[in-house]
Give the backbone structure.
Amino acid sequence: MEKDIFIRNTTDMVWLYMCCVLGVLAVCFRISTNQHHRIKPSHSDWPWIEVIQWVLAAICQQGAFKEPLGCSCRTMFLIGYFVTYLLYTGFAAGVTSLLAIRKDAVMLSLNDVIEQKFQLATVDNFNENTEISSLVDDRKIIKCINFKSLLYKVLNSNTIGMAIENDFIQYLTTKEDKNQRCKLVFSVIPYSTQIKAFAVHRSSPYKEKLNYW
């Protein structure tokens, strides 16, 4: 939530000032009740725990078991009311901003990728799917003889690799340098009954076009 009032730079100081003022008022209230109690023993002396409880009650707009008197406690209540208003407003604004987010990017299916003429490559064991096989036969998808060849194309050209994700990752962790995996970004192909994945280089322009990451 970049526009949330909780984290705006312009409101950081406001929250800090309100906390400081509440702290100063709490100290003044504690000193005031202690001095009044010394002058007039019948006057209630508020210990720190009760002062803190009153501050929290003022922020939460709840009643307390004692009714304080004086300017400092009333000011605390007004500031607490203002803090509560900001919290409620901020929560409502946060929820509204989340609900207002528009997801313009639509996840592309395999057919969508084919129609946009992205350069695709796959491996032999991925051709068991009839849809993939027909696309390979029509030369819309490049067929690689093994994962090594597929990985080379993905890392060295603007190619989208297509393979079973677990098999591809297993190959990277056993046959290749593990750092190679960090250069790739995987994404499950939507609307597919099998566990498949697209793999592209992290710097590939296809990364943004696929809208997966």
